[in-house]
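Protocol step 4 of 6: structure prediction from sequence.
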Amino acid sequence: GGAVVAASTASLTVHAPGGRTTFSSVDPAADYTCVAAQAFGGGAVAAGRARASLVALDAATGSVSPVPAAPGGATALCGAPRGALAVGTRAGRLILVDPRAGWRAGADVAGAPGPVLALDASRDLIAMAAASPGGGGLDPVVRVFDVRSLPRALPPLHFPPRAVDIRFVPNLYGTLLLVGASGVVALGDAAGGAVGPLLPVDAGGAPLLSGDVSASGGLIAAASGGGYLHLLARGDPGSAVVVGAAPPPVPPPRPSA
């Protein structure tokens, strides 16, 4: 418990609490693009590759196994309802994979016009942020799907600042944090298609790269390209106030052997 899996284009690394590396797999030809934030199928963590199919990493044994039945070209992964894995692809598709059935792909829908950048799920909803087709920046539309049976598109969220990351607010069903690269965040109603006021984040001109919401839903964090974490306290739905910004903590040096 508490382990972290990190992915670079050529490696998968498992870190124990405190930062100690417990396992590392290096493959210069792997071309990893993303990793799921939870374990599936008996404790395996899924990682996506740019061209080949997914791989399953057993963090306990350190084994890395290709999953031929799963789709290739994954650019974003997240856990989905009923133990499924949601896969966003370079072609803008949303594919649901069942790790309990040999990682076989199930529902497959055209989700976005460009590569999927971020996925998140909450109960029976999956939200998707994507790039514009042809490498033209970010898509100004965040798409939402109801996956209680077959994926069904709900009214999209129009977000002119263009989302680079998205996260559902844990304690508010259907409320979605939208992180704009240009330095704003907003809360949207994923079930209704409405977006609240734009909330500026003073990142000193640096782009925002990602965001997250605390388990209580009361604190929003946004990471900027300037190396800072920006914290906002959420008040009433649709509002937040900045409470501080600081560089991420640096772990103490390890003692020499």
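Step 5 (inspection) to follow. Residues 206 and 226 are 5 Å apart (CA to CA).
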